[in-house]
């Protein structure tokens, strides 16, 4: 079965426009401060989107979620709008990992890190939560943080990334980041709640990279 083509709109980057190849899109946004982009399923959607404002599509993301199969129980409810959502993306072919944090209420990207060589998705999810905690501490904010990774949330509670990844020259920077993250957790306190993003009921994590 042929791979389904995605269309990538770049509103803000080195070059703007519609791209049909992820690598070409990535070249416009990687390392570019406050890059703004989104993937679409059809060329018609992408061409219409480039003529409009980026924030329209980010803000409407929740309304564009696929239909859910069941209603969330009262114990889960709805996600808190005034929050930060974090997520990581891991390329199974290259082993590259990156992560980002999004302010859920507006869709504004607060930070984007990576890609990092020879990492894992769990490591990215863990680093993203710690990054969000440190970011909020500087802002003196007690906003909750959403992650869809139970593993990363458990690592945060233990203040230790229990990864089985082996250290190599290529991923040494990742291990250095893990050490700094664990040191931060050990030496800082925080009141922010770390909450599970319930994808089954709420749809995709707002910080999802949209490359599935």
From TrEMBL:
Binds 2 metal ions per subunit. Manganese or magnesium. Residues 97-212 form the RNase H type-1 domain. It catalyses: Endonucleolytic cleavage to 5'-phosphomonoester. Keywords: Cytoplasm, Endonuclease, Hydrolase, Magnesium, Manganese, Metal-binding, Nuclease. Its cofactor is Mg(2+); Mn(2+). It is found in: Cytoplasm. Its main location: cytoplasm. Endonuclease that specifically degrades the RNA of RNA-DNA hybrids. This is Ribonuclease H. It comes from Dyadobacter sediminis.
């Amino acid at each position: 079965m042929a791979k389904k083509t995605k269309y990538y709109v770049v509103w803000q980057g080195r070059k703007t426009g519609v791209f049909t190849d992820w690598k070409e899109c990535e070249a416009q946004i990687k390392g570019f401060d406050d890059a703004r982009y989104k993937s679409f399923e059809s060329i018609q959607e992408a061409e219409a989107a480039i003529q409009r404002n980026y924030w329209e599509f980010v803000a409407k993301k929740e309304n564009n979620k696929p239909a859910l199969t069941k209603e969330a129980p009262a114990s889960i409810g709805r996600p808190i709008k005034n929050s930060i959502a974090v997520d990581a993306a891991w390329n199974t072919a290259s082993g590259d990992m990156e992560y980002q944090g999004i302010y859920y209420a507006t869709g504004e990207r607060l930070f984007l890190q990576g890609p990092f060589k020879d990492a894992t998705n769990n490591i990215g999810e863990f680093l993203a939560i710690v990054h969000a905690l440190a970011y909020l501490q500087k802002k003196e904010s007690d906003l909750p943080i959403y992650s869809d990774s139970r593993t990363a949330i458990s690592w945060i509670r233990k203040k230790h990334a229990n990864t089985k990844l082996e250290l190599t020259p290529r991923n040494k920077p990742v291990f250095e980041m893990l050490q700094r993250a664990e040191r931060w957790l050990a030496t800082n306190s925080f009141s922010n709640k770390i909450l599970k993003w319930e994808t089954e009921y709420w749809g995709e994590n707002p910080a999802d990279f949209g490359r599935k």
